[in-house]
Amino acid sequence: MANQISHLLTFNHLTVCLILLLLSQSPQIHSTCRNFCNNIPINYPFSIDDGCGAPQYRHMLNCSATDLFFLTPSGNYKVQSIDYEKKTMTIFDPSMSTCSILQPHHDFKMSEIQSAIIPPSPDTIFILVNCSIDSPVLNHYKSLCFNFSGHSCDELYGSCTSFKLFHLLSNSTPACCFTSYETVKYMSMEILDCTHYTSVYNTDRLEGVGPLDWLYGMKLSFSVPDTGCARCAKSGGTCGFDVETEMVQCICSSTSNSTRDCAGGREISFADSYRTSSFSGLRLLYILALGAIFLLHY
Q1: How many CB atoms lie within 10 A of CB 279?
Q2: What letters, b where the CB count within 10 A reaches 16 and e where it falls short, cover 105-140?
């Protein structure tokens, strides 16, 4: 009787251990890729779930309960829209000064990869406001400033409630500079010696339009990596990547991935093959262990 109880305890102990081992080695389940953040569609190359989209755009977007944000080294910028046909994203800095509100100045900085694959578009300009007479963009680097659809500093200070303050304090018209992203990319506001900046997009449509009606914010132009994503999408999958190796994958379901597409007879990725073979091996080990315990018992 004592031997039977001992065998039963041994059997139960081994059973629990093997079940835990099987669960820990079972195929990894990937969460599905969300394709919307509130009312903004999230398509390739972007994603809000790690392992989805293109690895180059990893961790660039964050979806909150109310808004979608573009993340940069200088802060989080609210995404207003994404145009996948024109390959543009429109963002707005909640902390940026505009024609109607003046806020503490700060720099706009992007990471190196962001500057390379999703920089501000050519029709987005940066306006440096309240620049000193010693500012580099008014002296040695004055070629960095350009004419913006016939608009002037006088017009900016005269029309904008927020910028009128600079005119009143100096009892004159402080210098300003209409420039491109390349200027603020390489020089901080401290080096530029301008106290504030604002940005405007769709500038090619603003001729004859006053500052009160400008479109404040930034329009970014993104590129789409050619990784065979169309084939994956056509087969019913979602383009993504392995979160450890960043190798491109076609996410076919919540439990399986492919290196190419989700059609029948697809080529299984190495990671899936390994997980499948490991899982099968452990099941075999479990069956053998049960057989051994059974023989020992009898």
Answers
A1: 13
A2: bbbbebeeebeebbbbbebbbbbbbbbeeebbbbee
How does pLDDT run along the chain (298 residues), one tens digit per residue?
Answer: 545 445 444 444 544 444 444 444 433 334 578 999 999 999 999 999 999 999 999 999 999 999 999 999 999 999 999 999 999 999 998 888 999 999 988 899 999 999 999 999 999 999 999 999 999 999 999 999 998 889 998 899 999 999 998 878 877 788 999 999 999 999 999 999 999 999 999 999 999 999 999 999 999 999 988 877 888 888 888 899 999 999 999 988 755 556 668 874 343 333 343 333 334 444 544 454 455 444 445 5
Chain center to CA of 237: 21
In 3D space, the residue among 222, 214, 209, 212 whose CA is nearest the CA of residue 125 turns out to be: 214
CA 213, CA 223: separation in Å to the nearest integer?
29
Return the structure tokens found at 26: 């079972």
CB 160 within 8 A of CB 212: yes
Distance CA 43, CA 86 (A): 13
State whether residue 151 is helix, strand or coil. strand
Q: In the structure encoding, which two tokens stand for residue 80, read together? A: 């207003």
Q: Give the integer Cα–Cα distance in Å for 8 and 183.
A: 76
Distance CA 103, CA 111 (A): 24
Distance from the first to the final alpha carbon of the chain: 13
How far apart CA 32 and CA 229 sit, in angstroms, is 16
Contact 279, 27 (CB under 8 A): yes
Residue-level length of the chain: 298
The pTM is what?
0.75
Query: ∠ CA(242), CA(248), CA(43), 5° rounding?
Result: 95
The per-residue DSSP string of 8-27 comes to HHHHHHHHHHHHHHHHHHSP
